[in-house]
Fold this protein.
Amino acid sequence: MSVVAQDSQGWVLDACSLIDQGYSRCIRYKDDQKSHVKCRFKSQCFHILKSHYGAAADGGSTDVLQKADKPSKKRKRKHCELNQGEVDSQAFHEKIRSVILEGTKSLVDSAQSVGYLNGPTDTVKEPLPSQECSLAALCEMAKDLPLVDTEEQGEFAQLLVAEDGCASSHVDLFSRVTESRADWATVVTLMGEEYVIPPHTAFLLSDFTTIKPLVHYGMRFDLVVMDPPWENKSVKRSRRYNSLPSTQLKQLPLPLLASPNCLVVTWVTNRPSHLRFVRDELYPHWGVEVVAEWFWVKVTTSGGFVFPLDSQHKKPYEVLVLGRYRTTADNSSSSKTLELPVEDQRLIVSVPSALHSQKPSLSEVLKPYVRAEAKCLELFARSLQPGWTSWGNEVLKFQHTSYFTFTPTDDQADVPKDDEATDLCRDKPTVTPALSSPGESSPPCHCPNTVE
């Protein structure tokens, strides 16, 4: 169960279980053989056993949370004066501190009462996946190639995996939205690497400068979630990914992607300047009305904060800013009254991934605030979600098979049926993007530009 506990303060999520929901039924093609497998994300990525208090993993969460009741003694600084950013950060923290502390205690207690966050259940230490992601570099290379003018041809989408499970032999990953229509996950080979593609998903692998195909895709979304690569000193030092100046985010064509009253959710780092930018500049620029601020609280497998609550450096929480896209026509419409109000200051408590920049899926907690058949989009995505459309220059990063385990299964009730149409596709689906043959165009897509 991915939502482990819920109360008026928020939710406790099992982030690994959220990922696994889309992969219980999977077809894998390897060495020209097709097999039915159960696919699971590697659970060791979520074994955060020890907080940075230095407490033992089995010390329980109560003691760790109680330490946060009393603000920790601050070290004497060499320079007595705080800069303006630090002053703003401290003021914001003091404003929300009791919300984080009391809400986390309540939710962790609820989770522990049903046997979750009671410490590690698996003591076997396994190494984390170490797949080097080169997708962003490939996006850069693709810019220099004479790719097909999709705007001229009017072809903005293509099928990677059809409803019968057959994979296309040639797709252009960089200038067309790529779709999977299958009812189950499929392992395909892209650019010489194996990736797990969830059911009923669509994605565009491109950077900020080539987002046009997503606009021309012709779909308006009811939910847009984005995790921008915010600028900060840590990112510059580590060089983990290229950051993006805040002002450039205004160039994202959100009004061309959002349906009326679309729920827009933005992950924000703990820099007050980024939070102010989203609330006071970015959302107003798009016509998005701020409706709530939520907090993602990161805890260990024993329920303790991963960082001291009052740390001056890293906090155990991140902010999400939620808003509604309003057009001029919407302001006077009655559609507002049909929306479920979004409560302010809700908490999402979960064990974070040890993999950098992997956020928990928000699909379960946001369900009540969008319509039942909502079309969902993730911007700056590093993974795919069943039923969602995703965009980013590392959109397949956490879909690489190195992050998954595969278990053969013979249970035909749990896997897709081998009907006649599926048997027609016996060859291993090795997909070669247009990057490797720039002069060759992709076959026309005769399917409507929608994801069921």
